[in-house]
Protein: Drug/metabolite transporter (DMT)-like permease
Amino acid sequence: MVLRAYLFLVLTALAWGGNAIAGKLAVGHISPMMLTSLRWAVAFVIMLPFGFRHIARERALIRANLPLLFAYGALGFTCFNVLLYSALHHTTAINVVIEQAGMPMVIFLANFLIFRIRATGAQMLGFLLTVAGVILTASGGSLSRLLALDLNVGDALMLAAVVLYGGYSVALRYKPAISWQSMITVLSGAALITSLPFTAWEIGYGDVIWPDLRGWELVLFAALFPSLVSQVLFIRANDMIGSNRAGLFMNLVPIFGTLMSVLILGEALHIYHVLALTLVIGGIWLAERGKRAEQPRN
Structure:
């Protein structure tokens, strides 16, 4: 089961890294809020035939937990991306990537404050190694670039996004005992509904870019992989190994994003990319080794 959870989380990180590449390719082909709404609309349409029977069978439990499920979709699926996209209008991508690496720390802290779940020393050291790898990648191996970073409105928005998604990950502990088909269908519907006001705002301010052929291709990709496949795998991995351990794998996202930038966008691969990947994988291994050593004492 643990190996399966690892596979799920690696595929999740790969899909989320691919989403960053899709966002770069979308520039000039579809605007950010329109992409958000359309990806969840397509995801909801895809899931509805698979989830309808499950929703009908579990409707009483879904109805009883509808506010919680709606909050999951609104905060974890829609608002995180809205904050991320908005942050990129005010700060650099370097800042955003570094700040996104703080998600596991948010998860560790929330688990401790709410559930009194302590992170082990190995988990904390593993976390620091993965953050070092992410910072190395984001700074391009240049200390001067890292020292030149400054906080602004965009950084505050991204920090809010980090806290939001970290909280979403921890809150999955409270999700009702419904099938993943029902879960993803309902959350996709909630994400679609809550994304519409942002898209309406984009249209109202004249910032909308309606999708061309490339835009629709990116909508389909985002709907299938970052929106559906990755969310299902992430939720199931959280169930298998817990949010502390699952959260550490989030730091693979910028690493995969960097590697795909090389393969798809033609960006140069440097030695610090390889070193950063080694740090991230080593950090995950160390945290997992510490967790296994701790289990016999529980």
